[in-house]
Each structure stands twice: as structure tokens, then as C-alpha cells.
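Exam revision sheet. Question 4 asks you to relate a sequence to its structure. Input first:
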Amino acid sequence: MKGISIPDHRIHHAYLVIGQEEDLLRQMAKDFVVRLFHKSKKEEPEKQFSLALEAESTEARPDSYSDMVEPEERLNSYSDKEEPEDSLSLRIEKEEHPDLIFVDYQEKENGEKKSSISIDQIRQEVKGTVDISPKEGQYKVYVLCHSDKMTVEAQNALLKTLEEAPEHVIMILLCENENKLLDTVLSRVVRVYVGDMPIEKQWKLLQEIPALRALPTFLKEIAHKKQEEMQKYAEELGQLDGQELYCFLDIILRDVLCYKSTKDHHLLYGQSARESITAMAEKYSYWTLGQWGEYIERYKEGRAVNVAQNYQILDFFLFLSNT
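Answer key, C-alpha cells:
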């Protein structure tokens, strides 16, 4: 089960869903939209909800990540009568909802599908319509199928929309091979991986986030940190997507336990933080590491009941600093 959290008015403007089964990715996008459209009509603005993506997947990784934005209330655009969820689901499933736009291969004159998505198509179907307000609700969602088959020119044309999308726009890019997308595109999306992903790759991707890259060293030295330092860093981590933060903490914990048990640094996934990991293995007891694991599970549950992430992390820092 993979979830995309939408807490406190804020959502990501762009997601990249990566997997090998196009039909599954397309269905996941539809399921996401059903929950988004239905809940955005009936939830109070301050309430948090989570949109589940049904898939066997590992981690979701944002880069710098696209800034979390606060959408304006558009209560006056809501219909007076709430639409039954089954009716909404049916229209989305049939791809007949006016605020859900699929961008896919265009047909050639002979009826065959093109094998790429051109700059003209992006200009016409995306850039030419993003400024038009949603017709029925708060959001308008664009699903770009085969986004890794966009030409370089098309990707560059999409960049400005990813950077400066109107608050009502959400982009979901579906692809099989993220390596075919420009780095400038990848840096502006939240990545969701569908299917198994090696832990070594998870570590490498998460290490690219500056705030996470500093985490192993901070945890190693936490006994010497002042509370003000812990609070400041917790606030920085609180701005990250919870899934990659907890995934990273999980990997660190696994490596610390592994080295504590085996003393073999070759078995570590986090080779780039080996010094910090081995030091923590020497310092922390099995009881402390067990509590570490329980904290992570408790934080994951806390996200569902609106507990602020920075307070969760500060609580964890204070626990470790006192052990």
C-alpha cells in the first residue's frame, strides 16, 4: 500500500509514478483522482486526508521537492448538491470528468498511435488549458501517460508549467523509465515507485536530499546537540515528505542493527554514512534501537491523526539524546 498524504491545505503539484505496467499506473492515477475530487468537496479545508495508491511498492522520493503549496478555497465553485461517490468514480473510470485530462499518444492519419509526445501536443493539451479554472471542484488533474516518451522539446515546454502551475492544477506523470526524463523535470516532481526497488537505490536517491544526507551524522552526534539545534533541524525535516523521511530512518536503523550484530560493514546499505552507522551501533543498546523502531511506527500512525511531523522528529531526537 502506498499513500500520498495531503495535509493542512497543502499538496504536491506534480507526481511521477514509475512502474512497468502502464494499465496499472493509469488505474492508480484514476483511484487517486476519485479520492481527491470526492474528499475535496466534503472535507473542511483544515482537515487532513490521505490518498491511497493500491500497489506493492517501496518508497516515494521527492528531490528538492516541489514546494508544498496552499490552494485557495473555492467553495463557491462547489455544487450545492454533493455528488455520490459511485457516480464520480464512474465518470473518472470512463475518463469523462471535465477536470481530469489524459495526455496520451496521438493518432496518426492511418489510425496508428504515435510513439512519442511532441512539443505541440504539450502546448495544446497542457499549456494551452492549465489557466482555465476547474469546472466542478477545487482541482484540475492532468495525467501524462508515457511521460518518458516526451521529446526533449516537449519536456522543456512542460517545465514552466511544473514550476509555476496554477494552484488548482495537479500533474501526474506516468512512466516506465525515469532516466529518459530531464533532470530539470525530475527535480520538480514527487516520485512514487510501483514495484520492488533495491534498498541500495532507495538510499542513493534519498541521500540526494540535503536535509536527509545530514541525518546520520546528526544522530551520531545528538548527545552533544543543544535543544535549539534539535528543534531547528526537526523543523527542517518537518518540511519533507514523511514517506522518504521514515524510509530513510528505517534504512539507518536496519544498518545500525546489522553492524551491531555482525560487525561486517560490507553488509551495510548506507556505505556513504558508514562511520556514523558503525558509531551508533557501538553506542546504542538493542533496547534503544528497539525503541527507535517503535517510534518510527508510531510516527507513521501519527501522520493519520494530524500530528505535526516536526514535533514527532523533535520527540525522537530528545529520546535519543537522553539514552
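Marking note for examiners. Strands lie at 2-6, 14-18, 49-53, 60-62, 100-103, 140-144, 169-175, 190-193.
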